[in-house]
């Protein structure tokens, strides 16, 4: 099977981190195609960044319409439902996938994310996904996303410290990493913390493999049916949904 993993920001080095995390857990015979969005912000750190990332996300799906499944590799899960409307294969968001995995492994988990403003976005997702009874707290480290790639930054130490606080103060039994750029920290943190640490990229890949293996596809009835054919105007005229 072929799983297309889309980094909705425009930073190729982060796509490399995401692709490596995906390939590390993919089953033999699963092809991982990790791609960087061709349009949008260098990092996604707010509602506006998320909204502007969706056109690039749609482009990345349309470039490979026959992929068996898709993964949106940003913890805000931007454009997830829009992507499910246009894709036939399953589309997984890494936040939704990670939270479900954490709920299988512990009665309570904490999310450790980057900036305070993205903490609020993650809290919205917790409610939208019905995870209020599982997620004990969403914690911000106030680390800009691109600092995760800076070897000279204190990102690792700050993330570890916040995870330790989550375990001691929130009484959480598992940690969800709230950014795709943290995907390479899982083993380091698990050794230090002694609890399950969940990266949403890896979690989404394994769920995608399971759904494809079960022969399941995105429902095309109701609100996830293909978008209605109609004209679009202005800069988005090329994105008008085709007749099906």
What does it look like?
The chain is an alpha/beta fold. The chain has two domains: 2-94 and 203-239, Rossmann fold, CATH 3.40.50; 95-199, 3-Layer(aba) Sandwich (Rossmann fold), CATH 3.40.50. Helices cover 41% and strands 15% of the residues. The chain contains eight helices and eight strands. It has helices at 12-25, 47-62, 80-86, 94-105, 116-128, 155-169, 186-193, 200-213; strands spanning 2-7, 31-36, 69-72, 91-93, 109-113, 135-140, 174-177, 197-199. Strands 2-1-3-4 form a four-stranded parallel sheet, with helices on both faces. Strands 6-5-7-8 form a four-stranded parallel sheet, with helices on both faces. Strand 1, helix 1 and strand 2 form a beta-alpha-beta unit. Helix 1 crosses helix 8 and helix 4 crosses helix 8 (200-213). The protein is globular and about 55 Å long. The mean pLDDT is 97.
Low-confidence stretches: none
Instruction: Give the SSE string.
Output: EHEHEHEHEHEHEHEH
Strand order of the largest sheet: 2-1-3-4
What is the tally of beta strands?
Answer: 8
Number of domains: 2
Gross geometry: globular
Largest sheet: 4 strands, parallel
For the CA atoms, what is the radius of gyration? Answer: 17 Å
The overall pLDDT average reads 97
In CATH, the topology of the largest domain is named Rossmann fold
Total count of helical runs of at least 4 residues = 8
Distance between the termini: 25 Å
CATH class of the largest domain: Alpha Beta
The proportion of strand residues reads 15-25%
